[in-house]
Amino acid sequence: MDSIHYVEHLLMSAKPEHPWLVLGGILLFVIFQRLTVHDPLHDIPGPWLAKYTSLLLAYHARGGKRHLYVDSLHKKYGPFVRITPNQVSCAHPNAPAVVYAQGSASLPKTQFYRAFYVDGTASLFSTQDRAGHSSKRRVLAHPFSYASVRQFEGWIRRSVGKMASKLDEKVRRGGGLGINAATVGRASGSCYGTSQGEVDVLMWLNYLTVDVISDLAFGEPLGMLDRGTDVIPEEEDGGAKSDATKRGIEANKEYGVAAMIDYRGRTAAILGLFPYLLPGSILAPLARWIPDPDLQRGLQGTDNLSKIARRCVKHRLQSNEVRRGDLLDRLIDDMRNKQGLGQTPFDDSSPLSPAEMAQYEADVVTDAMLLLTAGSDTTANSTAAILFWIYATPRVLRKLREELDEMLAGVAPSASDLELVKPMIKEADDESVADILQIPLHDQVKDLKYLNAAIDEGLRMFATNAFGLPRVVPEGMSVNVEGHTFYEGTELSCPAYTIQHDPAIWGPDADTFRPERWLEESASGLKKHLLTFGIGPRACIGKNLAILQVQILVATFVSRYDLVLRDPKELRSVEGFMHKPTDLWAKVYLRGEGGLME
Ligand code: HEM
């Protein structure tokens, strides 16, 4: 046994109290080192403890309000604040262009992202080095181009149509919506108070987006909308469930998919601040000993999600199903091409060795799981936040309805529109065709000015991506941000929430939801300050898919439903890696049938 494995073995077999001794030792060592070695960030202000340890930031990350904490630091110390021994938060309006620069000036991701490795494998998202990232990004760039994403519109509208049909049916039955409100494992597990006559709209958006992305990335919807819950049930009917459900069994007994994604993000947001606890470090096994149930749920969530992804990918690799042209097909195609395999079937005659097949599968699984985790709750949370702001601001709701009514009046999607949704027609039964037809076409809504302004404004106000995404100055390089020079090893981040609420950029009404600001003459310079999807070479690759869904969803809700929000004054939220509403409880009525004045 070599020394690394020996230490790993010792840690794995240590009693629970020993890791704390190790952690304490590490902390003392770090403080000693900081006191004796030259500190290149000595002139950057910030809380004194941040000079020595990331614990203070981790404490606020654990509380789910890191962005508000960092925002308060900027209010106190100015645009540059030291938030950990190595990291400077840069809230100057010009900072994002440098920190997230393109080309040779681009800065790689920090070690923080190792918190997202799956079974030791880096995904497109968590790959740190620039070259490795570029080659992975090339693989997925085409499937996520606008032209490709348009081909998924049929699948998306089928799921949105199914969601609308379910909501309609329950609303028509009367008594409002309280369906499955108490289901264990719903999203962040944060449902509160009574559900009488109300529905948590956020949960339905989660069912929808998990179904959409599993349809595109795993080959079929995971059946959340059908069941009205995102908990994949245990075997209960002797095998009558869908294949996808069967493949999820055992992987998801306690929490819903949204909850697993949520806990995973929260855990990564904390562990990512301590690289020596992350995969690749010999101390990584210690993370499993930290006595924090939420943190352990996050680690378990990653294991469970990767099990679901692995089963779905394996099923596709081994099946002789007709190609669907979905993201999974494309991931598999690209990997096969890269390995010069063409369409060789994956059976006993495969030219691959078992080890090669295992690596091949691990890569596809990691990216399929990335798509599920990066592409589902982000879209649901952003849509929920936008709907909150729209329904909480009656003036905006009225204006938006005028615009939508004019566009949709008399031009409801017809059978000929099915041309646009061809890719899924061969799979559609009469019921799902009827569902699809009640949903606005992307072509009808994509260029609506006020709709898009309301979406941008909702994303600005809520900031789904709220804390600063960290980048590191690489070896041999230095970076100048507004007169401050940062040297190799320094981590830089731009706090999206703070920048998106900066009165110097947005004016004195920066904290007001006012879509009109995006339509004014001065608006042309604003887009670069909206960091929702990130900017630069690591910006969101799924933006086209996300925007397409958000536009269709917001148009569907606004033109179809009245939502009477339980609390129009506050959208409660929690932050892990992403910032998300905890819920969106509302009484739901068909438009004009109750609740809201037109
Ligand atoms: C409104 C919804 C979404 C938001 C707010 C969002 C936000 C972001 C942000 C801020 C990043 C940069 C992260 C970083 O630098 O650490 C990112 C990256 C990424 N997103 Fe999204 N995203 C959304 C939807 C999607 C969708 C639908 C998908 C795909 C199905 C997706 C896939 C990805 C991937 C693969 C990356 C990593 C890209 C890379 O490193 O090259 N996202 N997203």
Structure in words:
- The structure is a single chain.
- The chain is α+β, with helices and mostly antiparallel strands and 598 residues long.
- The protein has helices at residues 3-12, 18-36, 55-62, 66-77, 95-99, 130-141, 146-150, 153-173, 201-217, 224-227, 243-248, 257-271, 293-318, 327-338, 354-375, 377-391, 394-408, 422-425, 430-437, 442-445, 449-462, 496-500, 503-506, 543-560; strands at residues 80-82, 87-90, 199-200, 471-472, 478-481, 484-487, 491-493, 561-565, 573-575, 579-581, 585-590.
- It has 24 helices and 11 strands.
- Strand 5 and strand 6 (484-487) form a beta hairpin.
- Residues 1-8, 175-195 and 235-252 have low confidence and may be disordered.
- The protein binds protoporphyrin IX containing FE.
- Protoporphyrin IX containing FE (HEM) binds at residues 124-125, 137, 213, 370-371, 374-375, 378-379, 382, 464-465, 469, 532-534, 538-542, 545-546.
